[in-house]
Amino acid sequence: YAIAKKLYENMKKCFFADGKWYRIYKNKKGSIGAFSEDLSLLASALYALYEVDCDTFYLDELKEVLDILQEDFYLSENGLFQFTSRHAEKLIVSRTEIFDNVIPSGNSILCRVLFQYGTLVGKESYIEQSAKMVNQTKAYFENAHGALGNWLVAWLYAEENNRQIVITGEHAHKALHKERNTYQPAVTWLATSMEW
């Protein structure tokens, strides 16, 4: 966990400047703006860092990344995220990737993260956005499931086995680590020493 935290700190120092994330770091500066898949993977990593011990710092960082994605990549006409930023150099074709390859599609990653984050902080619009994204791809589940593995995981969270486990009290973080030693798929975790 300490290594992951340090890695994120270093990534932010190198790849984030002037309110923008970059894809490449060379000669001590960022170049080429991040693509939606880069930011989706970053959002997923930040959520994973939060889940380790429920440090809300990572939720705040995640919110900033999600805000950038919503503003610069979201397409309201289809409810998905385009590959390149609206502010990037214009390409002949701006694609919207839905199929998972060696790297899962940015949209499938974001579908899960939007649901998890929305559930955790009570942001209904993100939960609805996630459901809309799953509905866009459901038609492909039976015939193209090999290219939709990450979408199926998002679907587990959004529709099938969604569970939230909240642990409170003085020893909440210790209890969290104990509970997470057993495999529990599609769970949103929250632990706090505050009493509710």
Termini separation comes to 27 Å
The low-confidence runs, each spanning 5 or more residues with pLDDT under 50, are none
Q: How much helicity do the residues have?
A: 40-55%
The sequence of SSEs as H and E is HEEEHHEEHHHEHE
- The rounded Rg comes to 17 Å
Main β-sheet, spatial strand arrangement: 1-2-3
Q: What is the typical, i.e. mean, pLDDT?
A: 88
Q: Specify the structural class.
A: alpha+beta
Beta percentage is: 15-25%
**Structural shape:** globular
The helix tally amounts to: 7
Largest β-sheet summary: 3 strands, antiparallel
The total count of strands amounts to 7
Tell me what the structure shows.
The protein is an alpha+beta fold and 196 residues long. Helix content is 51%, strand content 15%. The chain is built from 7 helices and 7 strands. The strands form 3 sheets. The protein has a 3-stranded antiparallel sheet. A hairpin with a 2-residue loop joins strand 1 (16-17) and strand 2 (20-26). Helix 2 packs parallel to helix 4. The protein is globular and about 55 Å long. The chain starts with a helix and ends with a strand.
Please outline what is shown here.
With 196 residues, the chain is an alpha+beta fold.
